[in-house]
Request: fold
Amino acid sequence: MKTVDLVVPCYNEEEGLEHFVLETNKVIASIPGYSFRYILVNDGSKDKTYLVIKKLAGQFDNIKYISFSRNFGKEAAMYAGLEHSSADYVVVMDADLQHPPQIFPKMLEAMEQGYDCCATKRDEREGESFFRGAFSKLFFKLSNKLTDVKNPYGAMDYRMMTRQMVNSVLELSEVQRFSKGIFSWVGFNTKWVSFKTVDRELGTTKWKFSSLFKYAIDGITCFSVAPLRFTAVMGAIIFVISLIYILITLIQTLFFGITTPGYVTTLCAVLFLGGLTEMSIGILGEYIGKIYMETKERPIYITKFSNFAEENNQEKEN
Ligand code: UDP
Ligand code: MG
Reply:
C-alpha cells in the first residue's frame, strides 16, 4: 500500500482544525489503496491550537505533530513537516479547508501517471480587490521573467509531491524560504490543476497587504540578482548621459561663456540622483540582509513538543 503524508501548517487554527481533520478523514476514507497520515505543525499558535492537535492525535493514530517554540512562519512550518515526512507522496496544504482535500484522487491519478508533482492554481480570484489582483498579476509576470522560477498565475503551495521531489526540496535548506519558488526551482514534472477558491469558513486569514508585499520582494530577490544588475545598468546609463551633458556644457561655456545658472536643472539632477542612489542602496541592502541572515546558519525552526519522538517530550507538558 502506498503512503501519503499530509503536511499541514497551523497557526491559530483552534476554531477550524477539528473540522478540517474530520472533513479530510471523509475524503481519505473514500480513497482505497493508500494509507494517509497527518503531520500537523503548530507554528507557535497563540490560541489553543496545540491542545486541539493533542486531542486529535489522541483520537486518531494517524496524526503526528510538531509544535514550535514560537511562530516561525508558514514557510518554516512547511519545511518542518516535509523534513518529518517519509511517505511515498507528500501533500502540503492549509488547515482552513481553502485547499480542498476533495481533489486528492485527481492528484493521485496524476502521480500514478508518472508526474512528480501535482500542484494547484486558482483560476478565479473572487473576493480579491482590484488592487490586490493587479499586484499579484504583476508579481507573477515579473518573477517569471527575472528568475528561474516559472509558475503560472495563481499558483499555490497546495500540492502533492513524490518522495524524490520532497528530498530535493529539503536539500535547499536556506533559512529565508520561498516555497513556491523552491518547488519550481527543483524542477521535475508538474501537473497543474485548478479549482475554484472558497472563502475561509472558520478563523481569519493571517496575511496582510504588507506581508504580501514582502512576499513579492522575497519571491524575486531569493531567486535572482536581476535587481542588482538593474541598478548597475541604470548607473551606467546615467553615467553616459551625464558625460554627454558635461561635454555639451563645456563646449557651450567655452564658446558662449557662462550663461544663467540653471536652478531647475540642478534641483532635478540632485533629486533624481539622490532618489536613484537611495533605491540602489535599498536593493543592495535587501541582498546584504539576506546574506547576513543566511551566514548565521540558524535553524529554520525550533521544536518544543512533538509526537515523532515519543520518549522525551510528553511528560514535560503542562
Ligand atoms: N500559517 C502558519 N504560520 C503563519 C501563518 C499561517 O503556519 O505564521 C498557516 C495557517 O494556519 C494556514 C496556512 O498557513 O494553515 C495559510 O494561512 P492563511 O489561511 O492565513 O493564508 P491564506 O489562505 O489567506 O493565504
Ligand atoms: Mg487560508
About this structure: The longest helix spans residues 263-295. The radius of gyration is 25 Å. DSSP finds ten helices and eight strands in the chain. The mean pLDDT is 87.
